[in-house]
Amino acid sequence: MNSNKIINAGVLAYGMSGKVFHAPFLDAHPGFNLKAIVERSKKIAVNDYPNILSYNSVDELLADDEIELVVINTPNNLHYEHAKAALNNHKHILVEKPFTATTMQAKELFELADSVGKQIFFYQNRRWDSDFTSVRNVIQSGKLGKLVEMHMRYDRYRKVIGPKAFKENPIEASGLLYDLGPHLLDQVIGLFGKPLSYHKILGKNRAGTLVDDYFSIQLSYPDSLNVFVTSSMLVVNPQAGFVLHGMNGSFIKHRTDIQEEQLLAGMKLSDPAYGIESESKDGVLTTIDADGNKTEETIPSERGSYLPLFEAVYQGIVNNEPYPVTREDVITQMEIIESPVTA
């Protein structure tokens, strides 16, 4: 096991995702050196990382032979193009969701990665959210008994059309299904694997919208388990993010991961409060025994941290250890996103 190797990393953009979801973790992980970033206009990364190189273009960064890992965090419709270019420049890649716009593009990149001997990692960070890890722990505890039904929601309220063209114009990988669908579907697939079947609904509700701003997908699993994932841009009063019903009880948990909020506020990963949810966000587990007696139990939120994702990337590159999000997981996710809307 090689634990001393330092991997030079580059990030393709320093907007919110680069500043919040990637740079702090690459900087904090002892196995990575955050060497470079692409900034086309504002050169602000140096304020946070004084030793960082700021390149003017993706091509400049990809031409840096010292960089071994490239984070693809550009607009959705550019993921395929930039992932392909990085692989052709013999870089490992960590790609934000959605991985690509189509399964065909995904499979092409898998073949290319294999041919050049480089690895693809999928940035599905919501597997490491505090709310989701709490839900997974409750399922694994067996306290609910046989699962019957699970509802997962990821809602926002944004009535007006947003300024990001790649999300709001009808181009490749735009719309809410491509934006938040990968999060919800990856969480379901991470828990239960590939569904037996699924039923998908899309909606366009905001005035003037050119893309979907609502989706709901019902996924059927063995033993009569039904999972429902829903997302809307027009929810003023968000409902619980996770509702689970089993033979022995129910578990209700709000979508609560605080990491994004803390990082935007400038909190460091070393802060003892990092990733800790308030007690008001605890989940509630209600179970019933054989005599019909109900017991209500508060389930504290797990501490959230995306550092294990970057550790998994490091171990994948250095020791060829399996990455938790597999190619099969991503293909399943994308087949569902690409599938026709059910009549």
From TrEMBL:
<protein>
    <submittedName>
        <fullName>Predicted dehydrogenase</fullName>
    </submittedName>
</protein>
<dbReference type="InterPro" id="IPR051317">
    <property type="entry name" value="Gfo/Idh/MocA_oxidoreduct"/>
</dbReference>
<dbReference type="InterPro" id="IPR036291">
    <property type="entry name" value="NAD(P)-bd_dom_sf"/>
</dbReference>
<feature type="domain" description="Gfo/Idh/MocA-like oxidoreductase C-terminal">
    <location>
        <begin position="138"/>
        <end position="338"/>
    </location>
</feature>
<dbReference type="GO" id="GO:0000166">
    <property type="term" value="F:nucleotide binding"/>
</dbReference>
<dbReference type="InterPro" id="IPR004104">
    <property type="entry name" value="Gfo/Idh/MocA-like_OxRdtase_C"/>
</dbReference>
<dbReference type="Pfam" id="PF02894">
    <property type="entry name" value="GFO_IDH_MocA_C"/>
</dbReference>
<feature type="domain" description="Gfo/Idh/MocA-like oxidoreductase N-terminal">
    <location>
        <begin position="8"/>
        <end position="121"/>
    </location>
</feature>
<dbReference type="Pfam" id="PF01408">
    <property type="entry name" value="GFO_IDH_MocA"/>
</dbReference>
<dbReference type="InterPro" id="IPR000683">
    <property type="entry name" value="Gfo/Idh/MocA-like_OxRdtase_N"/>
</dbReference>
